[in-house]
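Input.
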Amino acid sequence: MGISTITLLGMLCTPGQAPADMTTWNTPSMKIPIDYHPSKRGEIKELLLYVSADQGQTWQQHAVAIPDKDQNFTFNAPADGVYWFNMVIVDKSGRREPADVFKVSPALKVLFDTKKPVVNIASAQRTGDDVTVVWKVIEKNPDWSKFKLEYSTNGTSWIPVPTRPEADGSNQFKLPGSGAATVRISLTDVAGHTSEATAQVAGSAAVAAGKPANDTLMTASGTSDLPTPPLPGVGPTSPTSPSPPTPPPPVPDRGNRIDGGAPSNIVMPPTPGTPGTPMLPTIDAAPPVGAAPVGVSPPTSYLPAPQAINVTTFKMAYEVEDRGSSGVAKAEVWVTRDEGRNWTRWTEIDKPESPLSIDLTTNGAKDLKASEGIYGFRVILQSGAGLSRPAPKPGDAPDLRVEVDITAPTVHIFEPVPDATQKDTMILRWSASDQNLAADPITIEWSDGPKGPWIPVAASESLGSSSGVAKRLPNTGSFPWKLPANFPTHKVYLKVTARDTAGNIAEATTGRPILVDLNKPAAVKLNIVGGGSK
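Output.
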């Protein structure tokens, strides 16, 4: 009797962006139909449902079904997450098929997601005809193809705004007319749950009179088992600086720092296209305070958050508004290095097509570090009839900000120390720093050899990741490693990897193996056996 005689059927799955072999389910309870060939019915004694909550590492028997009596299994997920299912057939002689559930592929994989996304609008500000929206989304399993930013001037008809879907995002768009409007952010997750948030934007007359643009109600919907972090600051008066890394525990004075940190796997710039002829040979760095022309102040309108990249050549997309019958004949790319106090026409492109190829190096400069820093961009299009909107003037805010960061983080690994409070636990210690250190930037791995293969100290629990993917950890400077039972070796090499938001990566590895077996055998229950006189 083969396992093919029994089928687990995933029913009524909600389509989304889960892996192709995964069924998504938006309630905790699921009935799993049992299907088998009628000719096998007389051979079957019982059917066992096995469930794994850790992607096959362990299996638990969940339910028993009897032929002719049970048509399905009922499973109630104790928590959201991915569960694997398998069926074991027990015939009337007691033989099991398969004999070992660990050695067969799961018959059904289900992602249980019962919680709605959490959607918040942090701010909705208006400056003239420009509206800037900042949002925050918390969702473990988002379907980004169903992310929407919309506005309405009458509360019924919603007009979509093209935007890049992301958890922490912002967008600026033109709002026609001078009346008030409502903006709306909505997101659907892979299980079909939808949440939205709305915010009111005052009319341009009210804004000009000094009334706040986001003066009325903001609403948010959704539930999540994740804590809601503070909403980000808005505007140029509330910059965020990277927090300094937490120092590691005190290090003994026996030369126990193991240096590392040479940049590794840094993404190299793509082959540049033909961005046009630079109009000027250089762009000066941001001038010191007071160096701008008299009367020129930094922009008072909203500055979009910079996007960190680790290349100096990239492609910049744009959309054309008010395209006339003469089309677009020319594009000028304007750049600022001081948040709009001064602007330079950097590139001019005839017959442009989106995306534009941008090259921030100057005269083929080989020192790419000289190009690091924050750049602001505006694109001015000229019609075939020779008409264009005004070039940016001192004090105008950029439409896009990019931070070029090609410097990898600095990372060091230190000698681990035993955890005095937990048996078989080592405190792994490191230090990592970077001006743009990513959220949860650290991964830690071990190997029995200096060149790998590397195995995660903490494995990722993210959807779709395998047990061989390292979990991203916060930069706390230490991590308690509870060694698994029957650990295969008593000495290991360790590797700590740090990442920044631009995609730069640095690694530090131990130059010698580290002792992880800290047990001290002891002789107990002494006794004399054998021997002696009668």
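The chain has a mean pLDDT of 76.
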